[in-house]
Amino acid sequence: MSAPSLEFWFEFASTYSHIAAQRIEATARGAGVPVVWRPFLLGPIFHHQGWNDSPFNIYAAKGAYMWKDMERQCAKHGVPFSKPSKFPRPSLLATRIAVALESSPAHLAEFVRRVYLANFRDDADTTSNDVIRGVLQSMALPDSAAVLERATANETKDRLRQRSEEAVARGIFGAPTFLIGSELYWGNDRLEDALAYCSGLRSS
Amino acid sequence: MSAPSLEFWFEFASTYSHIAAQRIEATARGAGVPVVWRPFLLGPIFHHQGWNDSPFNIYAAKGAYMWKDMERQCAKHGVPFSKPSKFPRPSLLATRIAVALESSPAHLAEFVRRVYLANFRDDADTTSNDVIRGVLQSMALPDSAAVLERATANETKDRLRQRSEEAVARGIFGAPTFLIGSELYWGNDRLEDALAYCSGLRSS
Question: What φ, ψ does residue A11 adopt, rounded to 5°?
Answer without folding.
Answer: -130, 130
